[in-house]
């Protein structure tokens, strides 16, 4: 059964083939087709182009001039957690700085939750994301911090997405506070081994991540982070890094040196960090998480400077109970445009094409690609930041099976 999506006022394809025909730089970057149509069959895009050239299909759906975009790729989230830290947020708004110490509160609540409680919490968060246009999500562990609790978090995350990340090195848990080296040994030995019980292909984790932050007594130093990342890489895992969130530090350069798929936060960057990121273009993406700066009252990173230096810049939500309990990519886009010097086109590209690339995904709207699309209740992608805070965008249900927004216990398709 094929479906013709017609009446698309503006289609963002992220495809340079369409982009070459455009005069406007934003339209060129996004590969925009105006008055477009898409044919979808069995959850796969069959045809993309101007509506006037569209082939016949079994069914038609008229989108009434609305804009269609690739579904957002949220490449940095911590959705597997229980408990509430809203009081910590309130304290930050009146001046208490964030240092990662509150993570232990979420660890205690998460350890105490049952599998079903965690599963229900993740399902609700995934549904919330889909209702805001996110169709692909990465999910990290990191609120278990025992071998069993980390594995449990990853297995639950896997019910929703294949893009799972082991963050056993989130912070040193309280029971290891005065023997940090033992915890690093646990992460690099038994925990990584347990991820490989049935081999790399069957591992519940696709990536190994570390919170490298010498400014927090809770997270990991550059030396510790190197040991953890090298151990992950030696076992065949791709890497991601939390780096340079609370101050200047070694995280960004370590990530670039080790070929991590992404280094995330990048709030405090030196000239040398920017040089390293620019040299790592095509390998290491800098993922900016402006919801974190918003929720921690931190300075926003200068995305304009990064893009002008040639760095691959992605945007993600970092949905988590501590630094940003927002699952909204439109919110991240609006902040990036208003506060970080990105154009609306760059911000949308960063939250789709570049965040997708950091997960090994091709986020172009082309024939043969999965029909991972979102629709904006407005005529152009500009409305994402122009109408900030208005719930205008949602995932487009053109896939064959029910999606999490409609059946909260199901996972995202990729
Ligand atoms: N910075 C480290 N981890 C999370 C926050 C975790 C928390 O505070 O619960 C982040 O990405 O911001
Ligand atoms: Zn994070």
TrEMBL record:
Any one Gene Ontology MF annotation carried by this entry is: imidazolonepropionase activity
Uppermost EC category: hydrolase
Amino-acid positions noted as binding N-formimidoyl-L-glutamate in the UniProt annotation, renumbered to this chain: 143, 320, 322
- Protein location: Cytoplasm
Function, as annotated: Catalyzes the hydrolytic cleavage of the carbon-nitrogen bond in imidazolone-5-propanoate to yield N-formimidoyl-L-glutamate. It is the third step in the universal histidine degradation pathway.
NCBIfam families in UniProt: hutI (TIGR01224)
The name of this protein is Imidazolonepropionase
Instruction: Give the taxonomic lineage as stored in the record.
Output: Bacteria, Bacillati, Actinomycetota, Actinomycetes, Micrococcales
